[in-house]
Amino acid sequence: MISFNYETDFELLNEDELSQWISDTIINEGFKEGEINYIFCDDAYLLDLNIEFLEHDTLTDIISFDYTLGKLIGGDVYISVERVKENAKDFAVTFENELCRVMIHGILHYCGYKDKSESDEAEMRSKENYYISKLP
């Protein structure tokens, strides 16, 4: 089950379509959908989590807590709407495109994809692009 939660005044307009897109991605990757919570927040909210749980005193666009068990995908995905807006400007893409990239990025991590090395990052970006092309 995918749920969308809001700790800021932002709200998705197409929750059902995005939920189906995420579910399709999970199935396509050979996993099953468990409980996945997206929490949309601001920079300050995410910075507090970053400091408290990861001991990183930096702004970020996403923090995900992975509760995947075997092939059952689950977790909490925190996304800073402020950071996504800034990144969209920096990368010269729409806010919607960047938001979807970040949303699917968290799911791909749960599916086992990494992004620490150059080759892993290239594979992650390729997968992100593939799934973004499948958006309704």
From TrEMBL:
* Domain of life (superkingdom): Bacteria
Q: What does this protein do?
A: Single strand-specific metallo-endoribonuclease involved in late-stage 70S ribosome quality control and in maturation of the 3' terminus of the 16S rRNA.
Give the binding site residues for Zn(2+).
105, 109, 115
The top EC class, named as a word, is: hydrolase
Q: Which gene encodes it?
A: ybeY
Question: Where found in the cell?
Answer: Cytoplasm
Question: According to the UniProt entry, what is the EC number of this protein?
Answer: 3.1.-.-
The protein's matches in InterPro entries, at most eight in alphabetical order, are given as: MetalPrtase_cat_dom_sf_prd, YbeY
- GO MF term list: metalloendopeptidase activity; RNA endonuclease activity; zinc ion binding
**NCBIfam families, per database record:** rRNA maturation RNase YbeY (TIGR00043)
Give the species this sequence originates from: Gelidibacter gilvus
> According to its UniProt record, which cofactors does this protein need?
Zn(2+)
- Its main subcellular localisation, reduced to a broad class, is cytoplasm
Instruction: Report the family membership.
Output: Belongs to the endoribonuclease YbeY family.
- What protein name does the entry list? Endoribonuclease YbeY
Matching Pfam families, A to Z?
YbeY
User: PANTHER family, from UniProt?
Assistant: ENDORIBONUCLEASE YBEY, CHLOROPLASTIC (PTHR46986:SF1)
Keyword presence, DNA repair: no
